[in-house]
Amino acid sequence: MNDKTHLGHTARKRFGQNFLHDDYIIDSIVAAISPQAEDNIVEIGPGLGALTEPVAAKVNCLNVVELDRDLAERLEKHPTLRDKLKITQADAMRFDFGQLVQGDKQLRVFGNLPYNISTPLMFHLFEFADKISDMHFMLQKEVVNRLCAGPDCKAYGRLSVMAQYYCNVIPVLEVPPTAFIPAPKVESAVVRLEPYDTPPFLAKSMKVLNQVCSMAFNQRRKTVRNGWRDLLTVEELTSLDINIGHRAENISVEEYVRVANYVYDRLQKEA
């Protein structure tokens, strides 16, 4: 058997496909998700159904969003799954997850995310944070480290700030390459993201917060005094109690929100 072929399906590089096949890891992930019968739950990229089957066995209905048409058709014909699944053949990066919300039942989201789209996909999902109760994702271990990283850490970046703005981030377990077919060249890990009902630090504009973070991290070797030169004066930064000698990776989520809110208020006055 070709090492990229599993259950008769050849993994497609353009979709970043790596199929999970380790029963212990699968059981551990399903236990972490802890699906309940009435859950409004959605899987992103079900692939060959390694997680789909055990989760579907525990719930009344499972939504799945799958980009690969062949895999979506395969699930439609699956002898035990087809009656449990609501299949959407779509690109999760452009999909409106809000349409899956039923009344006041928030979504529970999980998936073994293709590594090549995991970061932009999470940014897309954060837009629906108020409609999601929790998310469990298999990701490249490096990405999980970035999600969890705090200030003064090399892994701390824009993804850390935005994820921690929206969610409580909890690492769940590490997964070796041998758990997949084909085996990826990187270590993987599972993370749990729990969106806050109300973020601990409330940004007045997510657009401005994103801009402030991007501006800082795009020039992460510069101090914020220089990185934010076009945005804020030294006097303004000092008045906001920001250390002008700090770099992007030294600024806390609370400080990013404080700076963004100041910039937003000033823009409103200038408008």
Automatic annotation (TrEMBL):
<feature type="binding site">
    <location>
        <position position="112"/>
    </location>
    <ligand>
        <name>S-adenosyl-L-methionine</name>
    </ligand>
</feature>
<keyword id="KW-0808">Transferase</keyword>
<comment type="function">
    <text>Specifically dimethylates two adjacent adenosines (A1518 and A1519) in the loop of a conserved hairpin near the 3'-end of 16S rRNA in the 30S particle. May play a critical role in biogenesis of 30S subunits.</text>
</comment>
<comment type="similarity">
    <text>Belongs to the class I-like SAM-binding methyltransferase superfamily. rRNA adenine N(6)-methyltransferase family. RsmA subfamily.</text>
</comment>
<feature type="domain" description="Ribosomal RNA adenine methylase transferase N-terminal">
    <location>
        <begin position="25"/>
        <end position="197"/>
    </location>
</feature>
<keyword id="KW-0949">S-adenosyl-L-methionine</keyword>
<dbReference type="InterPro" id="IPR011530">
    <property type="entry name" value="rRNA_adenine_dimethylase"/>
</dbReference>
<keyword id="KW-0489">Methyltransferase</keyword>
<dbReference type="InterPro" id="IPR023165">
    <property type="entry name" value="rRNA_Ade_diMease-like_C"/>
</dbReference>
<keyword id="KW-0963">Cytoplasm</keyword>
<keyword id="KW-0694">RNA-binding</keyword>
<dbReference type="GO" id="GO:0052908">
    <property type="term" value="F:16S rRNA (adenine(1518)-N(6)/adenine(1519)-N(6))-dimethyltransferase activity"/>
</dbReference>
<feature type="binding site">
    <location>
        <position position="45"/>
    </location>
    <ligand>
        <name>S-adenosyl-L-methionine</name>
    </ligand>
</feature>
<dbReference type="InterPro" id="IPR020598">
    <property type="entry name" value="rRNA_Ade_methylase_Trfase_N"/>
</dbReference>
<feature type="binding site">
    <location>
        <position position="20"/>
    </location>
    <ligand>
        <name>S-adenosyl-L-methionine</name>
    </ligand>
</feature>
<feature type="binding site">
    <location>
        <position position="91"/>
    </location>
    <ligand>
        <name>S-adenosyl-L-methionine</name>
    </ligand>
</feature>
<keyword id="KW-0698">rRNA processing</keyword>
<dbReference type="InterPro" id="IPR020596">
    <property type="entry name" value="rRNA_Ade_Mease_Trfase_CS"/>
</dbReference>
<protein>
    <recommendedName>
        <fullName>Ribosomal RNA small subunit methyltransferase A</fullName>
        <ecNumber>2.1.1.182</ecNumber>
    </recommendedName>
</protein>
<dbReference type="InterPro" id="IPR001737">
    <property type="entry name" value="KsgA/Erm"/>
</dbReference>
<feature type="binding site">
    <location>
        <position position="66"/>
    </location>
    <ligand>
        <name>S-adenosyl-L-methionine</name>
    </ligand>
</feature>
<dbReference type="InterPro" id="IPR029063">
    <property type="entry name" value="SAM-dependent_MTases_sf"/>
</dbReference>
<feature type="binding site">
    <location>
        <position position="18"/>
    </location>
    <ligand>
        <name>S-adenosyl-L-methionine</name>
    </ligand>
</feature>
<dbReference type="Pfam" id="PF00398">
    <property type="entry name" value="RrnaAD"/>
</dbReference>
